[in-house]
Amino acid sequence: MKDSGFFQEFEVFSKRSDTSPLQYQFSLLAPNQELALIMAQENFMRREPVADLWVVKRSDIRKMSVEERQSLKRLDNKDYRNTKGYGYLKKKWRKYEQEMLDEKEILSWGGKPSND
C-alpha cells in the first residue's frame, strides 16, 4: 500500500504489564512515527495504565499471501500429535465393565450350591 498525502496510518499496541501479552488497541493517522507515538500516548495512556506502547506503520506490517497460508496446512495425517484428552476412556471402561462377568453370574453356572 502506497502512502498518499501527508498523513500515514499507524497501528497501536500496548502491554498492561511487563509480563502481559501485546494487545492491539486502535489505528491512527499521523504525519510521522514520532508524532504517532505522542498521539497514541495522549489518546491511550489517559484511560488506563500501560507498561509499554508500540506504534507500527501499517505499511510495514506484512501478512502472509494465500500461497504462504496454504503451505501451513499439514500435508500428511498427524492427528496423533493433537491431544484430545482422555474423555473417551470413561466410555471405553464402561463397555469393558459391561462385558466382565460378575461373581453372581459365575456362581449361577454351577447350579444349586452343594451342602457337603
Description:
It comes from Fredinandcohnia quinoae. InterPro entries: PaaB, PaaB_sf. This is 1,2-phenylacetyl-CoA epoxidase subunit B. It holds the Pfam family PaaB. This protein is an alpha+beta fold and 116 residues long. It has a domain at 8-60: Ubiquitin-like (UB roll) (Roll), CATH 3.10.20. Helices cover 33% and strands 19% of the residues. It contains 4 helices and 3 strands; from the N terminus they run ββαβααα. It has a 3-stranded antiparallel β-sheet, covered by helices on one side. The longest helix has 12 residues, at 33-44. It is elongated, with a radius of gyration of 32 Å. The protein starts with 7 loop residues before the first strand and ends in a 7-residue tail after the last helix.
Q: Provide the helix percentage.
A: 25-40%
CATH class of the domain at 8-60: Alpha Beta
N- and C-termini, Cα separation: 99 Å
The class by helix and strand makeup works out as alpha+beta
Mean model confidence by pLDDT:
82
Q: Which fold name fills CATH's third level, the topology of the domain at 8-60?
A: Ubiquitin-like (UB roll)
